[in-house]
Every structure is written in structure tokens, then in C-alpha cells.
Specification:
homodimer; 479 residues; alpha+beta; Translation Initiation Factor IF3; 14 helices; globular
């Protein structure tokens, strides 16, 4: 077994969560640093997770009537400036192209930080009548935001995402679209990524630049910090007015249409790591795991073992993303390797198993092992993949429940944080921006969202000013 | 039928090929111009063609052992300069980012024109032993080249592509990879896009910047101009030496690995248009057509027609990309619309057809109509899609055969071009760059490639200098 790689130690999750995170990113070979400051290489194993995310979401987008397009990656400075709030929000953090070859450009181009302006420019070209509406567009691209502090997947200067951009004849239709896509994201997080999320509305100060309303799904990581996992924005007709997009209605009158945009990014991979991972490495939700089950032959030099292992692989390969590892590494090495990589199921098959007509299947998240008769293989694998999904969702939900605290005053927030550390604080707020800032200054947590199932707060007082509360708000330290 | 759009006239293909081309791009809604000079929007119908191209090629890449990754879109100037020939080839045509937000960057970043330097930088990080080889990587991204003259799909400042980058322990393995991917591209063009191609090697002067050898597939468009449809490069160990990528071999000695790269781009969509299109618009190869068959109800207000049309759609939808157009436009309008959009099959169903238990299927490329008994629908549609593919391939091949001319001297080339116009000129060449330039100066055509099945030229003389020929070369005016 010469030249054998050993699975390297990773930092303990509870000892140093941040270092544990970067250890996993590197050692599970999800991403690697580059010579380009603030940018990463997404390696095959990490990219395969993204491809699975894309496949599921893209099918869902198409099912709900959306079409993919591709806009340019550059935005001329004049175009970026057309919507006042939008340019104020993004101009400070864009990368500027000033030269093409050796020639200085007449007008600077920014590398898109988001593409509202490009879509509007296009819509103004192609929309004339109510018959041209709605347009339900999406694109899968990368965008650039010149961040100072970066971390793989969570915050990088370039990141991959999808951005949906839709335009509708009426405000009602656009609002319904905004809500629909928030629900698509929430369902995806819960049913594919096994990440429980809170659906909510952002406060005025935390809205997307140019939006009338921003909705988000917020997840709680294992360490009790919050992560915004997706956003859906309602624009009203603000962009349409700024870009002079008008259509002739059924009533033959010119009018402005209403718009939305919505997006999720590769930071979802960061959310997966920080929601499900443990001290042995990554734990992947079955729906997006590049390998759902790995078959590891035991005593593979013994006659018939590799043949049987290959037979199991062939039985599973049309319904499960299965891999047979028949390399000459030791079984122990392989156990650690696929644990580090978060493969949901490990199937062990050795001479004694073959004799007994069985195999052993271990679940990554719990370590639980089950003896499975070979003639029940397909059914058991499907069942156990579901069990892994349900199990990791439950663990994540329990973590969130345990780490969600009701607080009625600034003092309570401070003592709660001192006692329990990070988590969601659910606390009433009067709706005033000064109080939102006050909470942040005095306790460190920021408003994450007003939950859509806004709990009754008629008897509650704002934690900051003591006036009547308008909303219950989730507050937290956020990634 | 108020508010009805009429299919707009397009320029005749033979009257003005260039204008016919841009008419189709716009009127079939493949792409649209933008406010970003030299860049285009790829519209849903055009992007769906690209998605189908991606799906087929990506499956083929994975079948041949390749994995997808994602590199940054930026290249620091110092990294671009590491390989001398490479930077000379690309630096004059890159876009430079000089500011991040309001801060001037210490080192300029170019937007990738191609990613050899980024892959090499990464390989130097992750390759140490022969056990780390080969790496067979690919990425689907966009790249930027600051072109002066642009045309949708054929030459734009930003374009979509895939770039494969592989690295191997031996030169033999890398050469085999280069050949394999050239064959993958050629098979794809012929079997999916129905575009016949010549596989060949580029001359020294036409090699990729930094390559030891560049192979290409060359197609002939309807107008007799050539289009390079894909390239596959063998790098030797030149990049490995420039980037100091070394590995410890089985013999325990440090050595340099060998590399390849290969790519196809959205210009394939341009090739589809110019190979198959006609005066009624686009003609799409079934394998990549977003809609393979459109069902058009005749006299759809009559009882039972729409129901029957929907029944046919439901029967086909699991095996064919089928669309039922039950809008209130006239059948005649729909006929023109889907002809313009190049949909391979049109299925007509009206009251008389229903009574007779049949439908009528028309093939876009030939206009031929076939009466099909309804109980044979699925089989006939599959058969006719194949017939469309074979038919358009045959037409393209005949066009190429008709427009390929053997010439033995510069004078013959000149008179051939005067008589026949554009096409492939197959003519002997001594291998000298001066003669290659000479042919271009005197006749206008450039060397496209030395065909891999290099015909015997032992009795031939170079068309330029009259010395013994080394190769037969395809020459043409190229897009």
C-alpha cells in the first residue's frame, strides 16, 4: 500500500468553526485558492454539487414557465447609472474595464454585479404590446462584486449564480411571481438541500438597491450564525420608468410594466457545509451529492469480491449516482475518504457478506449500519437515501429550534447572547430604522427578516424604544 | 385575427448572404443587439439551441472521463505573461480591468480570452505525483476578445464556449487526447448538427498561441466560405515548463507533464444558420432544435380539433420536443412562423384528418408532406426526424462537394475563383510560410488546414513556388 494518501486531520467543528470550514473546503476538494485575489477555483467535486443544484432548479424554473437567456457580462457606465438607487448600491463595489487591448475605452464598462440594467435595456427593445408580456427570463452566469474580505463559497469577488428577471403587465402578477419564486427557493432548500429556512421580508434598510420589496430565505448554520440563502425582489414599475419600458395595453393606452428579480448563488454550497458537516468532514444531502452511494469491497483480493461489487454497482447505476472504489487503497482509508467527502451511503461487501447473501450499508450522518439482503438492495438504498435526507433535515431543524430565542428587550438580547452564543433572536420591533440601528449597535445582531407568517405582536413593545411593535423580527449575526 | 403579427420578409439568401444571415438572427429571435458594443443578447430560442448543444457535448465529455470545473474569469497580468507565445497572441485583444470600486488595482487583470494560464496555475498547485495524473478538466464559460468587427454568433467580443484542459504523464497520452477530442467534435458536427467537416491540422502560422500543434474541423457554409467549427491543441510540455508544473514519476524522478486544450463556441449556431438555412428562414438539425415538431390545428374552432391536437402532443411529449400552437393566429401565419424558426417537422391536424384517422406531416427542409395514419404517429415522427437529419446533411455535403475545387497553380486558383466564386480550394503546398503568404496575397484565400487523411502529393508541386509539395492544403475565404 505504498504511496498511500492518508485523510488529513481537520480542525474540530466546535473548536474553531471558521477553520473547520476552510479545512473541509480544501480537503474535500470543493474549491482551491488561486493567484487571483478573492477568486476561487471550483474543483470537480464542488462543481458537481453546483451542477446538481442547477439541474433541479433549472427544471423547476422551466416547469414554472421561465426561459433561459444570456446577457453580456459588461454594463456601460451610463446604463448602470439609469436607476438612481441601483447605481448607488452597486457602483462602489464593481470592477471597471477601462482598456480594450491597448486602447482606452471611451466609456468605462463594469463587469456585471447583477443584470437588472441589461435586462431593462433589452426589454425596452422587445416589449411593445401587452401581447409581448410577460417575459419570464433567467440566466446562469457569474457576477463580480469587489469584496474586501472573502471566503470560499460564502463571499468571493466572482461567484456563480442564477438571476431571474421577469416583467409583467400588472403589479399583481409581478407580486405573485416574487412570492412564487421565494417559495420555489424555500422548497428547494428544504426538499433538496435538507436545510430548513425562514421565509421573510427584508426591512427597508436591507432591501436590494432599486427594489420596492425584498424577500429572502434565511437559514441558521450549525454555529448559530444566519445565512441568507436566496432573495426575490419586487421592483414595482421603478426600473420600467427609469428605462422607459412601455407597452400598449388592451385598452390601447401606453403604460409601464412591473418587474421582479430573484437569485441564488454558489453560497448555497457554503450553506450545505455549515448546516450538515461534522468533525469527520462534509455531509451531503442525497439530492445534490455527486456520489450518493460508494461501494467499498472488503478483502477485495479474495475471489469473487470485486465481481460481486461490480454487480451491485451495475444494479444501482441507473437509479443512483453510485461509485465503486476498487483502487488498491485500504478499506480503512476509503472509509475516511468518503466520510470526508460526505457521501450519504457506504455499501460494504466482503467474502462473508457474499456467503450470507447480504451487504452492509452505513449512513454517513449517523454512522448507523444496516445489514441488507442483496435481493432488497435497490429498495433499501432508495429508502436509506430518504432516511439520510430526513435525518439531516431533522438535525438541522433541531439545531435551529434550540438556537432560536425569544427576547423582549435589549437587555434580554444581551444576556441571551452572553449565555447561549449565536442563534436567531426573535424580538419585536416598531418599524423605525433608528431602532433597527439601535439593536445592532447595542447587541451586535442585525435584522435578518420579518417572517412571512408574521406572528401576532399586538401586545408587544419594540425592544429598542418601547413603543408598540409592528413586527416580530428575526435578528442574528449573519454570514 | 386582430393584432396579428405577420412573419416579416427576409432578404433572399443568394441576393445578399450577409444580410440574409442577420435577418434570420433577428427574425427567428436567436439574438439581439445591445447597448454594449460588440456584445449580444442570446434570446431564449437561440439559447435553447446552445443548451441542447451543451447537453449532448457535456454527456460525451463525461463519457470520455472529463470533469467540469470553474476557474476565475480574471487573469492577473503577470500570470498571462508567463508563456511568451501565449501572451503575444492574446494581449493585444484582451479587456483590462484597472479599478475595483474606486480603487486603482495594483496589478491589472484581464478578462479571460482563454484559460490556459489559470489552469496551469491550478495544476502547479495540485499535481505532485504520477498518481495525480491525468486531470481531464473542462469548463463552460464565456470569454472576451476585443474584436474590431463583430457579427452575432460568428464574432462577438464576448462569446460562450467550453474549454477543455487536460494534463498527462506522457506526450503519447496527450496526443491521443488531442485526437480523441477532435473526433468527438467532428462526430458531433456530423451526427448532431448535420454539418460535414474536414478534420485537419493547422499550418505553423495559424497555430494557437503557445501550442505545438493545432487541429481543427473546418466546415463549408452555403455561400462557399469556410468556418472553423472547433479546435484541439497539443501543447507538449511548453506550458508545464513555463509554469513549473512538475510531478514525481513512477521512477521517482521529477518530470514535466504534457497538456492539451480544446474548444467549441456559440459560433456553432452561426454555422447551423449558414449551412442549413434557406429563403424561408432557419432550418434546424433535429438533435438541437428547441422544438422538433410543432402541431398546428386546422380549423381549430371546429369541435374536437383542439382535443385531438392535444392528444397527439401528449402522445409525443415524452420522446420528442413537441409544441402545440393553439393560439388564435391563422394556420397560415403559424406555418410561416415555424418555417422561419426552422422547426424540423410540422404536424397538421384538421376535421377531415380526424375523420380519416390521419394527420399530415411536413418536413421543413424539403417541404415534402406525408399523410400519416394516427396509429403510426410515434414511429413516423421518429423516422421523419431522422430523414430531416439525413436530408440536410446530404444537401450540405453536396454543396461542399460541388464547391470543392482542385487547383494546381496560382493561376488556376485565380480563374477558379473568378468562375465559381467561393469554395474550398484543394491545392498542393511546399510547407514554406512564404508560399502560404504568397497564395493569400495573390488569390485572397488562406490556408484552412492540412487534411488528416492528407492525400498523396508525391507528384505534386507547390502552387506558389513550384517546388515539391509536402501536403495538400484546403484553402478558402473564412469567417
Amino acid at each position: 500500500m505504498q504511496d498511500k494518501k492518508m485523510v488529513k486531520e481537520i480542525t474540530s467543528r466546535d473548536a474553531d468553526f471558521a477553520k473547520w470550514y476552510t479545512d473541509i473546503v480544501k480537503k474535500a476538494e470543493l474549491a482551491e485558492y488561486t493567484s487571483v485575489k478573492g477568486c476561487m477555483v471550483i474543483r470537480p467535486y464542488g462543481y458537481a454539487i453546483w451542477e446538481n443544484i442547477q439541474k433541479i432548479l433549472d427544471a423547476k424554473f422551466k416547469e414554472t414557465g421561465h426561459e433561459n437567456v444570456c446577457m453580456p457580462m459588461f454594463i456601460p457606465e451610463g446604463l448602470l447609472q439609469k436607476e438612481k438607487d441601483h447605481v448607488e448600491g452597486f457602483a462602489p463595489e464593481v470592477a471597471w474595464v477601462t482598456y480594450g487591448g491597448s486602447e482606452k475605452l471611451e466609456e468605462r464598462l463594469c463587469v456585471r454585479p447583477t443584470s437588472e440594467t441589461l435586462f431593462c435595456d433589452h426589454y425596452a427593445n422587445i416589449i411593445h404590446s401587452y401581447r409581448d408580456l410577460p417575459k419570464l427570463y433567467n440566466q446562469w452566469v457569474s457576477v463580480v462584486r469587489w469584496e474586501k474580505t472573502t471566503r470560499p463559497f460564502l463571499r468571493t469577488r466572482e461567484f456563480l449564480w442564477q438571476e431571474g428577471h421577469t416583467i409583467h403587465a400588472t403589479a399583481e402578477e409581478a407580486i405573485a411571481e416574487t412570492e412564487q419564486m421565494l417559495n420555489v427557493y424555500a422548497d428547494f432548500c428544504e426538499n433538496a438541500l435538507a436545510i430548513p429556512v425562514v421565509k421573510g421580508k427584508k426591512t427597508e434598510s436591507d432591501k436590494f438597491a432599486g427594489a420596492e420589496a425584498t424577500y429572502a430565505i434565511e437559514a441558521l448554520m450549525h454555529d448559530g450564525k444566519a445565512l441568507q440563502a436566496g432573495t426575490s425582489h419586487y421592483f414595482g414599475d421603478g426600473f420600467a420608468r427609469a428605462f422607459d419600458i412601455q407597452f400598449t395595453g388592451k385598452d390601447n393606452k401606453k403604460q409601464y410594466p412591473f418587474q421582479t428579480s430573484w437569485g441564488v448563488t454558489t453560497r448555497l454550497i457554503g450553506a450545505i457545509i455549515m448546516t450538515h458537516g461534522d468533525d469527520n468532514g462534509l455531509v451531503l444531502p442525497p439530492a445534490v451529492a455527486p456520489i450518493q452511494a460508494v461501494i467499498i469491497p472488503i478483502a477485495q483480493h479474495k475471489p469473487g469480491v470485486l465481481e460481486k461489487a461490480a454487480e451491485l454497482r451495475d444494479r444501482l447505476k441507473n437509479t443512483v449516482r453510485v461509485k465503486l472504489d476498487d483502487t488498491d487503497q485500504s478499506a480503512g482509508w476509503k472509509f475516511s475518504e468518503y466520510e470526508m467527502k460526505g457521501v450519504p451511503l457506504r455499501i460494504e461487501i466482503g467474502p462473508k457478506d457474499i456467503e450470507a447473501g447480504q451487504c452492509v450499508i452505513a449512513m454517513r450522518h449517523s454512522g448507523e449500519k444496516v445489514i441488507v439482503p442483496l435481493d432488497e438492495l435497490e429498495a433499501k438504498v432508495a429508502e436509506m437515501l430518504q432516511k439520510v435526507h430526513d435525518g439531516i433535515f431533522r438535525i438541522a431543524l433541531d439545531n435551529r429550534t434550540k438556537k432560536t430565542y425569544n427576547c423582549g428587550s435589549i437587555d434580554e438580547i444581551i444576556s441571551c447572547r452572553a449565555e447561549h452564543g449565536d442563534g436567531f433572536i426573535l424580538a419585536p420591533w416598531c418599524g423605525d430604522e433608528a431602532c433597527e440601528d439601535g439593536v445592532k449597535e447595542q447587541t451586535g445582531v442585525t435584522s435578518r427578516c420579518i417572517p412571512l407568517d408574521d406572528p401576532d405582536c399586538s401586545d408587544e413593545k419594540c425592544v429598542c424604544c418601547g413603543k408598540d411593535a409592528q413586527h416580530m423580527v428575526y435578528w442574528a449575526i449573519a454570514y
